[in-house]
Amino acid sequence: MSLHGSFLSDEQFLCSICLDVFTNPSSTPCGHSFCMSCISRYWDGSKVCQCPLCKKTFQKRPDLQINRTLREITEQFRSMRGGGGVGREKRGGRGRGRDGGIKYDLFHELKKKLPRSLPKASVTQPCEAQVTTSLASSVPNHSPIAALNHNSGPPPPPTHSSCSSGRRRFTVSGAASSHTLPVCEIHRRGLVIYCKTDQVCICPECETEDHPDHDTVTVEAEWMETKVQLSVSEQEIQEMIRERTRKIEEIRKSVTELELTVERETAGSVCLFSAMVSAIEHSQGELMEVMEMSRRAAKHQADAVIRQLELEVEELHRRENALAELAQSEDYIHCVKTFPILSSPPPAKDWSGVSVNSDLGTGTIYRSLAAQMERFQEELKNIAETGFPASVLEPSPVRTQPRMKRVQEYAVDVTLDSNTAHPRLIMSEDMKSVRCAERHQLLPDNPERFDRVVCVLGRETISSGRHYWEMSTSCEQVEVGGKTDWDLGVARKSINRKGKIEVTPSNGYWFLSLRDKNKYAFRSEPSTDVHLNLKPHKIGIFVDFEKGQVSFYNVDAKIHIYTFNDTFGECIYPFFSPCTNKSGKNDSPLIITPVNMKE
Q: Cα–Cα distance between 11 and 4 in angstroms, integer?
């Protein structure tokens, strides 16, 4: 029979208890349907629960749930009939055929409202006594509901044996739970819809009940639209990373320039105060202290700013990686929920106006000195306003050594002399590095060899002219953290090499020492401790034989550290001591490195 001839009767939507249209219909385990409130009241106070139609007895009161599909069909049927009860419908109402059934277009409208899980609806077959009293009434195989089940797949087997009438009753259950999508905790339906108004994923029933007038689309469509914005967010974060990286380099450059400014200012002040009487020594010390405090404060400020920028860059990198992973994800729900959080930029400070304070704070001191000494007044005012001009800088035994580029012009190829090496020292094949082993080696005890002090001399004899070489304190050429102890400098040819040695300039030793990883000292008489704010990665050693000078430089920072002034009296040799290895803690070698003239 064609669909035009199929129809649903009014009685199929009547509760057999209240004889009115279903309100929140609920199906019993035996397959019959009633209003939730009607069947609940029917069983209230009863010791044994029976079905009002088939009288099937249940040992335990069934836990009834609203049959949402049947409720949806009933409400749709009610709305198409004008909202009144079935018994009060007019014969010619909307959606009815002339014979009281549902018209073909109404059937298709109802079909649209049915969930996709309808093929999984349970099927029961009531007896003839139940056929004419409720939704359990018989439904011909050619009815719309039967047709829906036929179109969407074979129906599941019946839960009851067939009655003689041969008629079948369909009790439609809720949507089947999805195996691939999260389900709504309330309706147990798949979360396949995204509400743009409330920015939440919902199921079709939530859309009907709680979001009727909201802007909704499928989750997949929303993610496809959102995914377009993902690349834009990635580019924005990458640009923020580039800006902060440039700022880090700018601040680091400012710190280096500040160090050079401090060096220049210090050299100028020493030149100036060397000409003054002892009465101004206190003022000189005050000036040096202010400059050092300013330098430390500026460096501390720079370190703090760099750390904050690095933290922001780390956070941005994390977000960039998270967005990259999100772009490859197929989990639309997770992507839609996560993207708004990742796409919004993290709280970030505007660094455009941040810079290192380069003011040394020396202007006040210079002005005070000008007031005390009239003959220097005009000169000191100019220094406070413009700094030291190049013409003011006079040679000084301490601070007027040649600049790094100038001393590097005197670079020489230095190698180690294995005949002088202590038996515990191990040298590389090219004689460019040396380290201390745990045990003594079997070596000839020649007169040139040190037998107690763990050290070695260079082969190159220095008897005239200027010479320069550089030493790295670890094989990776990293900060002095690679070694805890070492000695570097020069030694006179006639030094004592046997037994205990007193390493002082008067005994022919001029070198810089490191002890316990951060204690620096010059072997003067007495020994001079020195505090190095910038720990040297690499030490440069410069010798001017005629002037009797041995100078030490921080190569990476391009800063002069200290200069010995003495008379050598005879030829000298480069001196190297990696010191004992301290059970492996000081095992890294000292390395003679090539001089890089490009820096």
A: 20
Tokens of 118: 């309808």
User: Which tens digits make up the pLDDT trace of 429-454?
Assistant: 999 999 999 888 988 889 999 998 99
Which DSSP symbol is given to 137?
S
CA distance 416 to 394: 37
Q: Is the pLDDT of residue 41 over 80?
A: yes
DSSP at 570: S
Residue 283: pLDDT band with limits 50, 70, 90: low
CA distance linking residue 588 with residue 454, whole number of Å? 14
Report d(CA 34, CA 321) in Å as an integer: 56
Among residues 401, 451, 418, the alpha carbon closest in space to that of 562 is found at 401
Q: How confident is the model at residue 9 (pLDDT cuts 50, 70, 90)?
A: low
Listed in sequence order, the residues at least 6 apart from 131 whose beta carbon sits closer than 8 Å to its beta carbon are 137, 138, 165, 167
Amino acid at residue number 274: S
> What is the overall mean pLDDT for the chain?
75
Bridge partners of residue 550, in order along the sequence: 543, 564
Distance CA 335, CA 140 (A): 47
Q: Which of 467, 501, 475, 471 is nearest to 486 (CA)?
A: 471
What is the end-to-end Cα distance of the chain in Å, rounded?
96
Full-model pTM: 0.37
Q: CA distances (Å), 548 to each of 292, 462, 554, in order? A: 30, 12, 21
